[in-house]
Amino acid sequence: xxxxxxxxxxxxxxxxxxxxxxxxxxxxxxxxxxxxxxxxxxxxxxxxxxxxxxxxxxxxxxxxxxxxxxxxxxxxxxxxxxxxxxxxxxxxxxxxxxxxxxxxxxxxxxxxxxxxxxxxxxxxxxxxxxxxxxxxxxxxxxxxxxxxxxxxxxxxxxxxxxxxxxxxxxxxxxxxxxxxxxxxxxxxxxxxxxxxxxxxxxxxxxxxxxxxxxxxxxxxxxxxxxxxxxxxxxxxxxxxxxxxxxxxxxxxxxxxxxxxxxxxxxxxxxxxxxxxxxxxxx
Length: 282
Ligand code: PMV
What we know:
The chain is α+β, with helices and mostly antiparallel strands. It is built from 9 helices and 10 strands. 44% of the residues lie in helices and 21% in strands. The structure holds (3R)-3-hydroxy-3-methyl-5-(phosphonooxy)pentanoic acid.
């Protein structure tokens, strides 16, 4: 048997979600596959899944259609796919809760949005450690992705925001509140399919992420390039400091924008959004 779970891209609410505010995340077409067999490399998440739900002597191995360097959430996807392998009839709730605990035990920090996306798939409004989990009635998102070439450690970025929050609690609190307002409007506009407004909201969200100190020169140059080439709006996705830039754009500008991202030194990554959650493949 083989199981799989999707990777993810965080669309709105990055960092604020760590403090209980909502975010919007979409599951992407890149997937992580788990089957029986001896694993090589980093087996911490597989081992923890086996320790939670496996029998003695169980072995699992993982392969993926994407590189871990992009920040697409390979750790949470592998954990979710492994749990599905061990208990194919488990509910989404059981898988989410067990996988989130494993990811927290190993990584120390995390809001669980990536675990939720890997489990239920689609595009979701997520918050409060899973108490808020609402699947949005959206089909494809006109999203383009540019990788900066810089891999950043999420825990380091989360810590830097925590330090800023300790120094300036009121300012950071206001930023999180403002991000929440953006997230809630983005949810409505995405459902309506008003992508031009969604782009503007990405720009606003990016301004606050800049204020939090989590953007980078490389991210900014990809954002400028994408917008100059016709994107409706752009922002970083995830922890920041590197990883990926995302933008929404009209179909007829796509090629032009991809060229601009490449010229600015980014790597264009082709994905589709709103992918199915964890599943048994065969
Ligand atoms: O870097 P990523 O893709 O794992 O995203 C991190 C997003 C944060 O909000 C910064 C942390 C979290 O766990 O929500």
